[in-house]
Amino acid sequence: QILDDTFISGATYTLGVWTGILYSGYDDVWSVYFTGEDYEINLIETSGNAPAESWEQVNLVYTATMADAGKKIGIKMYGDGYVSFDSVTVSYLAPPAQGIIIPDAGFDDHVLSVGGYIYLDDSSYTGSWQSDSGWAWVDYMYYQDGLELEALSGNQKVYGGESYIFQILDETFIPGATYTLSVWTGLLWSGEADGWWLYFTGEDYTDDLIETSGSAPVGDWEQASLMYTAAAADAGKKIGIKMYGDSYVAFDSVTLSYTVGGVVVAPRGPDPVDGAVGVPLGSSLSWT
After folding, report:
1. What number of other Cβ atoms are within 10 A of residue 235's Cβ?
2. Looking at 61, 94, 127, which one is the last position of a domain?
3. C-beta of residue 30 within 8 angstroms of C-beta of residue 85
4. What's the predicted TM-score (pTM) here?
5. What beta strand segments (E) does the chain contain?
6. Which of 35, 63, 94 is the last residue of a domain?
7. What's the total number of domains in the chain?
8. Taking Cα atoms as reference points, which of 255, 277, 200 lies closest to residue 231?
9. InterPro entries annotated for this entry (predicted)?
């Protein structure tokens, strides 16, 4: 079978199947494989001999590589004439602290001096974020008049500038997984427009999958979140995240977590303000 589920880079998968042979005296060899999306492309295999008139479980373990990420999982078996198979299972364990890392999640990769700022569309900007217009900007205490919002992680934050601010991540959607995008929002001054919007997008940042919106608090920070459950059509597609803010609405400390198989993969980078780190992921898929 070529499953709808896709490989997670660094996750260790175990294919289990019970084998037996109907009669003694017959050829009893079995082979088990993980494959690519083409069943003839073997990623790893093992083989052995089935017990006569009995059952024995065999297991094959494979750790997915970066090249496997987002590709469908293939499983395959081969047996001599009277070798039987039953009760096939696939389980996996993701590596510890393997949450989704958002590059430049705290807007500090482009280093500024105190009082400095830079627009995201400036040709000299070296951070990971993109903008659809020239008005979103990163600052380091540019407004030094006692009304400044201090950054939550690092020294810098980004202002919406009535612009879309986005990234298309290298990580891909897992069908059925529920993703939570969180970001801290704040408004520099009272009397200014205070709207913010969050989005999950497809690989084209204009392809909005889901959105939410709200109002930023004046002179303070508040965390906003958006949840999205990936559909089968999202499988293997890169995850897009996007924000929009009115001119003086600030964003900081962006995190992305997901739940799959009832287990939460915690946010990664920047270090969340509560000090949380990633946790191991374990899940099981089975066919009988």
Report:
1. 18
2. 94
3. yes
4. 0.63
5. 2-6, 12-21, 29-35, 42-49, 56-63, 72-79, 83-94, 117-119, 130-131, 137-139, 157-159, 163-172, 178-187, 195-201, 208-215, 222-229, 238-245, 249-260, 263-265, 281-286
6. 94
7. 2
8. 200
9. HpiC1
Q: Running DSSP on this structure, what letter comes out for residue 232? A: G
Count of beta carbons in the 10 Å neighbourhood of residue 271 = 16
The whole domain housing 46 covers: 2-94
Name the amino acid, one letter, at 99.
G
- DSSP letters, 80-94, are -TTEEEEEEEEEEEE
Decide if 268 is inside a domain. yes
**For 106-149, what is each residue's pLDDT tens digit?**
999 999 999 999 999 999 999 999 999 879 999 998 876 655 68
Is 112 within the bounds of a domain? no
pLDDT digits (tens, 9 = 90+) for 4-15: 998 877 789 999
DSSP state of 269: S
117 bridge partner residues: 139
Asked if 94 contacts 7 with a C-beta cutoff of 8 angstroms, the reply is no
Rounded Cα distance, 44 and 14, in Å: 11
Residues in the chain predicted with pLDDT less than 50, given as ranges, are: 96-98, 271-288
